[in-house]
Amino acid sequence: MKIRLTANKKDFNKLLSACREYLKTEFPPNSNFNLLYLSVEEAFINITSYAYDGQDGYVDFEIITLDENRVKVIFTDGGKPFNPVEFKSEINAKNNIDNFIPGGLGIDLIKKTMKNLQYKYINEKNIFSYEAILEKDK
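Structure (tokenized):
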């Protein structure tokens, strides 16, 4: 499933609804993808907040089923280059908690909970992808 959204926080609910509907069709009822939803929110909000410096832009979101326990998500945008994989998120996350400095917590969460993070900048587009594993209920 692929969807194009405006790079505007108002489109977050549209993104989350599309993601949930896709997962409902691909996985058993009550499958637990809470960390995926949180990571999708963090990545999308970062793009809408920083990629376009207040100008109009877009975010392409794609989700692909890899197997019965994993999905891959891909965010593509035409904003300024930013590599979340190389970003020193741990340092910023600690500073954020200690000093309430914005930036870093969401990226740090994605790095700690998702797998196979990749970033490419091709044809003036940021392409950020990662995999989520179905969470086991405790």
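The first helix runs from residue 12 to 26. The helical segments are 12-26, 34-51, 89-99, 105-113.
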